[in-house]
Amino acid sequence: MSTAILGRKIGMMRLFDSTGNAVSCTVVQAGPCVVLQKMNATKHGYSAVQIGFEEARPNRINKPKAGQFVRLNMKPMKVLREIRMPADKVDALKVGDTLTVGMFQDGELVDVIGTSKGRGFAGVVKRYHFAGHPQTRGTHFYRRHPGSIGHRECPGKVWKGKKLPGHMGDERVTTQNLRLFKVDAEKNLLLIRGSVPGYNGALVMIRKAKKAGKA
Fold it and tell me: Which phi and psi (to 5°) does residue 155 adopt?
């Protein structure tokens, strides 16, 4: 049994639980995914499976990838990802197996991996939530500036890691221990409590929570 599946974030909606409380949920169209390749420690140095998601047009696939699907006698897949897992779970899967949302259950904890929304070049107030300078008391052009970033002669430089303006977002983010509100196996949908990284339509990976015992 695989421990993860690929999907697309559709959007958010509000549902009501058994007690009548409103719950914000993210809808993810997950799977079906196909097992394309198996990696083992003897040959590859690690154990994992390669899965494919979403069929692709043949003219959109380069020759190396197209050759792989010809050997497997499968339709080309748009997205390929490797999932690390123990050797016994890899052995339980076969090339060509289909992974669906049926591996999850209602109320289960999952981790969601995605790419956060890109915010472009951002200042310290937006990027790191700096308070900014006073709006009075003689402040002129520095209301949203970071302030002092170092000394003069000693150390004579700006330390690495200093919070400064720069590129914000568009990076890999893992949100842990999100609870599944509902699993719709018929429509391949996962309804996840809370927010999920990325914009609507973004690719995400949903895996069984690694720290579920600590939630």
Answer: -85, -5
pTM over 0.70: yes
**Closest C-alpha to 106, from 9, 15, 203:** 15
Q: What is the pLDDT of residues 159-201, one digit of tens each?
A: 999 999 999 999 999 999 999 999 999 999 999 999 999 999 9
Is there a contact between 39 and 46 (Cβ–Cβ < 8 Å)?
Answer: yes
Residue in the block written with tokens 């937006």: 126
What is the dihedral angle through the alpha carbons of 185, 190, 191, 197, rounded to the nearest 10 degrees? -170
Burial 165-176 (b: 16+ CB within 10 A, else e): beebeeeebebb
Region 3-13: mean pLDDT is: 94
Non-local CB neighbours of 59 within 8 Å, separated by 6+ positions: none
Asked if pLDDT for residue 50 goes beyond 70, the answer is yes
Question: Is residue 82 classed as helix, strand or coil in its secondary structure?
Answer: strand
Where are the strands (E) in 86-171, listed by range? 98-99, 109-115, 120-122, 166-168
Domains annotated on the chain, with CATH: 4-119+172-214 (2.40.30.10), 120-168 (no CATH)
Q: If you average pLDDT over every residue of the chain, what do you get?
A: 91
